[in-house]
Amino acid sequence: MKTLTVWSWPTAVILLFLFTPYVYAGSLDEEAKKEIMVFYFSKRLITKCGNDLYSYLGIKNQPALEGVIVELKGLSAEVKSQPLSNADKLNGVEWKGSGNIRQEAWRMYHEKTGWSGWQPPPQNESRRLFLGKKKGRWIVIPNQSLEEAIKIGTLIDCKRLTPIPKPQ
Questions:
Q1: What is the average pLDDT score of the chain?
Q2: Helical spans, DSSP H, in 102-153
Q3: What global pTM score does this model have?
Q4: Beta strands in the chain (DSSP E)
């Protein structure tokens, strides 16, 4: 028994030392995903009404905003980290990369035509964000497409959605 204890303690320390960077990187990826979600909600790109999520994402011309709403299901954030250079590390950069939100499905509502059928997620990268963590602080930079969406983005009034019947 003592031999097992003597061998397992150094082994545990070595394993902890070897895997700590991976655990830390994983937690930074999770932090980055959280920052993406915070960005989308704080910039009025997504609104939560009850258990449902809505957006005007994908609508480019402002007059169409009056009658079109997008409902999102299965929303999550994904990130892709980039290796840090020595210069990054010396400058206090802890994480850098890009990310996006993904939905499992979406549908559109128009006042004249009602709800569309559920659609699969789009395959484009038009909503990609660039982000990094430097000296403990997250920096999020939207691409040009998101910048345009932020300019016309408005919160969806959840009361406006209440009378809209949803198809089963």
A1: 80
A2: 144-152
A3: 0.75
A4: 47-49, 52-55, 68-73, 76-81, 93-102, 105-110, 114-115, 129-134, 137-142
